Amino acid sequence: MSTSPPPSWPHCGQGADPGTDPIGCRGIHVPGHTMCLAHLTCTIWFNGAQFSGDARFDSARFTGKAGFDRAQFSGSAVFNEVRTGADWR
Ligand SMILES: [Zn+2]
Question: What is the pTM of this model?
Answer without folding.
Answer: 0.48
